[in-house]
């Protein structure tokens, strides 16, 4: 068996039956300070790109996905793509590595995962349809009320 990993890169394990990919966290210590610095870089980039309706949701302790979720809108598919490209470049330039990206083909909804922060860039009508903020803003249910 062969195993190779680098900070912020995919971990590739080769078994007799093929390859398996897992992700090595970009910031192993996952400190609140590192997440806060990354969040500030994300918000600065989004503001520079004229992203609209920026919403930041603290998901630390609520999800293993990351510490923050940021939801923003672009005015058009072209604006959504430009916001995403600018953010990816800024993150790399600030030393946060290469984020995972999904949805760049269409420009309706692009997801950028930095490890600590998940950024959703939507066209307004797509954002309204999925309403992610409402899902994450749901009140926490106390376990006492479940019994």
Any low-confidence stretches, pLDDT <50, length ≥5?
A: 1-30
Report the principal-axis shape: globular
Computed structural class = alpha+beta
Q: Roughly how much helix do the residues carry, as a percent range?
A: 25-40%
Distance between the termini: 48 Å
Major sheet size, sense and barrel closure: 5 strands, mixed
Number of strands: 8
In N-to-C order, the SSE pattern is: EEEHEEHEEEHHH
Rg over CA atoms: 17 Å
Written overview of the protein:
34% of the residues lie in helices and 29% in strands. The chain is built from 5 helices and 8 strands, in the order βββαββαβββααα. It has helices spanning 32-48, 77-93, 124-130, 132-136, 143-146; strands at 2-4, 10-15, 18-23, 52-58, 68-73, 100-102, 109-113, 117-122. The strands form 2 sheets. The chain has a 5-stranded mixed beta sheet with strand order 4-5-8-7-6. The chain starts with a strand and ends with a helix.
How would the blueprint of this fold be written?
Layout: E1 2-4, E2 10-15, E3 18-23, H1 32-48, E4 52-58, E5 68-73, H2 77-93, E6 100-102, E7 109-113, E8 117-122, H3 124-130, H4 132-136, H5 143-146
Parallel strand pairs: 5-8
Antiparallel strand pairs: 1-2, 2-3, 4-5, 6-7, 7-8
Helix pairs in contact: 1-2
List its salient traits.
147 residues; alpha+beta; five-stranded mixed sheet; three-stranded antiparallel sheet; 5 helices; disordered N terminus
Can you describe this structure in just a few lines?
It is built from 5 helices and 8 strands; from the N terminus they run E-E-E-H-E-E-H-E-E-E-H-H-H. With 147 residues, the protein is an alpha+beta fold. Helix 1 (32-48) crosses helix 2.
């Amino acid at each position: 068996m062969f195993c190779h990993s680098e900070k912020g890169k995919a971990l590739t394990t080769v078994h007799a039956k093929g390859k398996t990919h897992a992700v090595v966290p970009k910031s192993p210590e996952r400190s609140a300070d590192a997440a806060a610095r990354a969040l500030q870089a994300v918000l600065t980039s989004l503001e520079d790109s004229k992203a609209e309706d920026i919403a930041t949701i603290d998901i630390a302790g609520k999800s293993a996905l990351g510490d923050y979720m940021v939801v923003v809108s672009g005015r058009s598919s072209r604006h959504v793509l430009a916001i995403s490209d600018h953010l990816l470049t800024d993150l790399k330039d600030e030393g946060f590595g290469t984020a995972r990206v999904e949805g760049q083909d269409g420009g309706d909804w692009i997801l950028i995962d930095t490890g600590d922060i998940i950024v959703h860039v939507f066209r307004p009508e797509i954002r309204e349809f999925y309403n992610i903020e409402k899902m994450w803003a749901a009140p926490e249910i106390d376990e006492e009320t479940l019994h």
